[in-house]
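Student: Send me a single protein entry containing the residue sequence and its fold in token form, directly below this note:

Tutor:
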Amino acid sequence: MFTIRKAHPQDTSLILQMIRELADFEQLLDQVVADEKTLHESLFVDPKGPEVLIAEENGRAVGFVLFFHNFSTFLGRKGIYIEDLYVRPECRGKGYGELILKEICRLAKSRNCGRVEWWVLDWNERAVNFYKKIGAIPMSEWTVFRMTEESIDQLIHKTRGEK
């Protein structure tokens, strides 16, 4: 039996465990600095914070999706941005990823969102092919930019005209 439910505060350690599993799969485990306290505050204390759904098979967690609202100025409507969607390796190939995405799409429709977006690593061919198969369109004409805490601080403290 497969179910999807809203995460609860007592799921914080489980969510962090699956975040680490995902990061390990993506070869980015060394970049995970989140801890239970910070994650709990971000997910369950801040009412405007991200949301998490837990996917379960017979009551056992098999995956999760962490998402939040973004906004499209072109559409004039909010959207849903998926930060992470993860299905544990032993549970892949059962259609759970698609069921999780269907649930996100239902939420998007019920919240009058104009779109659902996410990133995928280029080398993850299985995921890229899956997303294309369900009708997702890669946004290859866009380049993702990021500012880290260090670059944010540098910009804040930069004096005008300084290079």
